[in-house]
Amino acid sequence: MNGTYTSVSFTSMFDACKPLQYTEEQQAIIQTVKADVVEHFTEQPKRLKHIEGVALCARCMAQVYGADPFICEVAGYLHDWDKYLSEEELIAQAQRYNIDMGVELQKVVPLLHGKISACKLKDVYPELPSEVFDAIDTHTTGCTQPSAESAIVYIADLIEPSRPSYNSIERIRSLVGTVGLDELYLEAFKSTLLYLIQANKYVWPQALVIYNELIK
Predict the structure, then answer these.
(1) What is the pLDDT of residue 166?
(2) Which residue in 51, 46, 68, 50 sits closest to 59, CA to CA?
(3) CB 86 within 8 A of CB 109
(4) Domains and their CATH numbers in the chain
(5) How far is CA 66 from CA 6, 17, 56, 151, 188, in A?
(6) What is the pLDDT of residue 2?
(7) How far apart are CA 51 and CA 214, in angstroms?
(8) pTM over 0.85
């Protein structure tokens, strides 16, 4: 991942972001994706607010860390596409797409929507680059060698402005623009792991493998 960044705080980042010069094709894609997402979540205003926050946060973070803002913004809009599915539907969809988590799917239901959405949306938006789907796929699980765009979407999902200001989230927000993206991603991943452990929730075994690789 890119080791350089623009020195800026989380709160000022949104004002500091420069206007983007997307191509006409990219602008058309974003308009279509935004309209689709608004329609898809029309009955879930809180989820839609979160999604819009992730897209904005990811786009601005991309400018801070020299990543591709188009990939980050589109992935931000689409990352929770199947979040609304029931547990039974998530498991059925995961089986349909042959998603193998290495454990019983019932144990990792909260992680499934990212991978399901990535599989499904490849057919819906074949014009999008593969990096968009990689970011969607790993935003719930993390990975050992994320691209800058995947790392940013993972982090933006955790810290976007509408998230409640818990101490752990405020800490990650405080690191934006003050540390490199590798360190920021590791701290965000650790924060998620610690939350699961402190809440006595099941930890996906592969998450520990990812953590051990990240700290090398």
Answers:
(1) 87
(2) 68
(3) no
(4) 10-214 (1.10.3210.10)
(5) 8, 12, 15, 12, 19
(6) 63
(7) 27
(8) yes
